[in-house]
Amino acid sequence: MGAARREIVAGSQAVRFSGAEDSAVDPVARMARYAAAAVALVLIGVLHEIPRVDGHRVRPGTTVAQALSERGTYEKYCGDEVDVAGVVLRRCGGLPPAVTVRKRTMGVDHAMGWGERAKIGRGSDVREPAQEFLTQSDDPDDGVTTTTTRYVLGSISGKQADREQVTVAPAKVTRIALTFDDGPHTNQTPQYLKLLAAYHAHATFFVLGDCAIGLSGLIKREIAEGHEIGIHSWSHRSYAGLSTEQIRSDLNRCQALLNRMGVPRVRWMRPPYGAINARVRAAIVSRGYHVALWDVDTNDWQKPPAGTIASRIMRGIGDGNVILMHDGGGDRSRTIAALGMALPKLHERGVRMLTMSQLKGLEPAPPTSLVVAEEAGKTKLTVVRVKVTVDGRAIDPPPTTAKSEGQVLVAAGAVLRAAGVECTWDNKFQTLNAKTPAGEIVLRANSRRFTLGGVDALATASAIEYEGELLAPIGLVVRLLDAKYVMEKDGSITITTTKAK
Q1: What are the distances in angstroms from CA 109 to CA 58, 64, 76, 97?
Q2: Which CATH class is domain 175-359?
Q3: Three-state DSSP string of 144-198
Q4: DSSP assignment of 367-418
Q5: pLDDT tens for each residue of 2-22
Q6: 338-341 long-range Cβ contacts below 8 angstroms, 24+ apart
C-alpha cells in the first residue's frame, strides 16, 4: 500500500495502518482484518435494507397492521367513531391508520418488503349516521320574508348539531308605474323626460297616432332612456262607440306607425277615457295587447294647482299602483311642475318607478335588493338579471345574479345545465343535486353548507333561493366545472370550461 495512510470503519472501530505496519503484521492476521471489515460493511448494508414501520424494524413480509399490533400502537393511529358533535362514541371505530410507503398511500394490509419505510398517520374519524332536517317559515307580516332552519340529528346519539338559521327578506320597496297619455308633445314631453332621468325613474307613454306623426326622434328618445311606449288610439275616439272591426283597424293603424318608427314590441293599450266593456276588451286582447287602466287619477286634465296634482300623486302611492297623468292634450305646465315636486319625495322614500311591463313582470325590473341575515350578521345583496355566457353560448333567458361587497352569486342550476351538467331540485329538502366534473354536489338553499363527493364543506357565502333559482357563489360554481370566469365591464359574466379550451 506504500506510505499512503488508509482507514477502514467497522461499526465504531477504526483500524489504521501504514505501509510500515503492513510489513510487520502477519499476512494471515492482515487478511483476517480485511475479512472482518468486509463482513461489517455487509452487515451495515443488510441492516439498512431491513423494512421499518413507524421507525421500527420488522421482518420482511410483515403487514403494517401486524407490525402496529405487535407494538401495541394500532389503536393509537386508527380513527374513532364520533357523534354529530364530534364526541367519541367508539374508540377505533373509524378509518384504519393512514399508511404511506415511498410517497404512495397504502392499506394496513400492505406486506413490507426489503428497503421499505412505512410512515404512519392517524386514520380519519367517522361520524355516526345522521339525518338532516329542515323547517321554513314565512313572516306573517309581509308574507315574503323566509326563515330557513337546518340541523342534523345523530341516529345513535340522538344529538342535534350543525344547526344554522338563515333569513332572506326582499328589501321593502313600493313599486309604481307613472303613465302619461295624449302625447307626444314637442315641448312638454322633453321636460318630462328630463325630470324622469334626474331621478332614475322609468315611465310608460301612451301615444296618440296623430300626435306621433313626424316625432319619431322623440319616440326613439323615450325608448333609449328606458321608457315604454303604449297605444292610446289614433285620435282619442272612444272605443265604446266603435265596432270591433273599427277598433282593430284603429289599432293596426297605430301599430303600423310605431313599426315604421322602429318601436320594439308594444304590449299595452289604454282605451281613450278608460271606456271599456267586454266587447272592447276582447277586440284589444285579440290583437295581442294588454289593457292598461289606472289606480290613481290625478285629474291633471282639469288643470288644478301643481301642489294639488303633486298631493294626489303622493296620496296614491301604493305597491303596484298605476298613476295617470298627461303629456299632451293641452297645457301641461302644472303637471310638469307637480312631477318636479313629487319625484324628489318618491326617490327619497325609495319608491321604484317602473314601466308597465316591469311592474307587471313582463320584463325584468331594474336591480332590487335582498337582506340575508345569518349568525355572522346581515348582508345586503343587489339582485339583477345579466347576460351569462358559458363556453361561448349565452344563457337564455338571462339568469339572476346577486352582488355584495365583491361577492358574486349566480344561478347555479342555469350555469351547470348550460355546461351540460344535469341538475335536479329536491323541493322537500330545498337542495340542488348534480354530478359535476369535480364530483357529486349537494347545494342547500339558504345555507353555506354544501356536500361535495360526500364530504361536507362551507362556501364563502350562503346559497340563496330567489324566485325559483338557487343563487350560489360563482367561485364554487366554476370550481365544480373546472372553469374560469371573467366579469365584463358591462356587468355580464363569461365562463369558460376546460373542455372548451
Answers
A1: 14, 6, 17, 11
A2: alpha beta
A3: CCEEEEEEEEECCCCCEEEEEEEEEEECCCCEEEEEEEEECCCCHHHHHHHHHHH
A4: PEEEEEEETTEEEEEEEEE--EEETTEE-SSPPEEEEETTEEEEEHHHHHHH
A5: 443 444 343 334 444 444 444
A6: 338/298, 338/300, 338/306, 338/307, 338/308, 338/309, 338/310, 338/313, 339/192, 339/195, 339/310, 339/313, 340/195, 341/306, 341/307, 341/310
The yes-or-no verdict on residue 253 having pLDDT over 60 is yes
For the chain, which residues make up each domain, given as ranges? 6-49, 61-127, 130-170, 175-359, 386-500
pLDDT of 179-202, one tens digit each? 999 999 999 999 999 999 999 899
| Tens-place pLDDT, residues 125-138 | 999 999 999 999 88
Amino acid 311 reads S
**Contact of 419 with 435, CB cutoff 8 Å:** no
Catalytic residue list: 181, 326
Kindly report the pTM of this predicted structure.
0.59
Burial of 353-390, coded b for 16+ CB within 10 Å and e otherwise, reads bbbbbbbbeeeebebbbbebebeeeebebebbbbbbbb
- CATH number for the domain whose boundaries are 386-500: 3.30.457.10
CA gap 51, 494 in Å, rounded: 55
d(CA 150, CA 164): 5
